[in-house]
């Protein structure tokens, strides 16, 4: 579905991204990991056409959307969920309007729009009455659910997430991670996550893309990566995560289902 070929990005004579290649199929989750400054956000921004490519291409269902000759802002059938849900919502708008904005291109009648918003809130397990509140009148966890509702209401094929759980406490993180997993299975969605949380990546990813100084250190099936990364950088990263306790010891069938 999504194909990234030889993507490179230079800015101010610096190689911010170099020769990035990966694919994402329907129903797959890719986690982009790597230390701070490795180029994760830059990669996401270049996929979305917010930064121009120097080389390479981004294709969606066979069609080129980004290349040095062509920069299209926003890929069709994609939506984005950011790290800070409160900052992502307009404080002066009721939740209902924030969700409705995702459908501004659709030709839905008012009653259908209303129904789609109610269904999206139900899908993210929020009470219907939240639609009439302002962002300041809901919790952080509820706000992130609203942002997810706003993303899924447009019925995308791919959702991009930039650290969507990092602003939340552990219990809410777990609830939202489960919600995202359920929505993915129900709607056959594909996900691309930027995350520093290797425990999350091990649990939810199908594939791992490890970046270091704008280059791919590893692009691996999740189980192979966590069994033993091939690169010295990958090994060092996992070692640090085990020492700091940010990576639980073993992924088993039982705890994957938990
Ligand atoms: N518009 C820009 N012009 C020049 N350099 C940039 C630009 N945007 C990002 N960079 C540089 O690109 C590098 C990668 O930044 P990026 O934000 O992609 O890293 P990251 O892996 O997402 O980091 P973090 O995990 O801290 O969010 C950094 O050195 C940054 O300073």
Highlighted features:
binds adenosine-5'-triphosphate, 258 residues, disordered C terminus, ATP hydrolysis activity, P-loop_NTPase, five-stranded antiparallel β-sheet, ABC transporter domain-containing protein, ABC_transp_ATP-bind, AAA+_ATPase, six-stranded mixed β-sheet, alpha/beta, 10 helices
Describe this structure in words.
The structure is a single chain. By secondary structure, the protein is of the alpha/beta class. Helix content is 36%, strand content 26%. It has a domain at 89-155. The protein contains 10 helices and 11 strands. A 6-stranded mixed β-sheet has the order 7-8-9-3-10-11, sandwiched between helices. A 5-stranded antiparallel β-sheet has the order 2-1-4-5-6, with helices on one face. β10 (207-212) and β11 form a beta hairpin. α5 (140-152) runs parallel beside α6. The protein is globular. The two termini are 30 Å apart. The structure holds adenosine-5'-triphosphate (ATP). Adenosine-5'-triphosphate (ATP) is lined by residues 11-12, 16, 34, 36-42. Adenosine-5'-triphosphate binds next to α1.
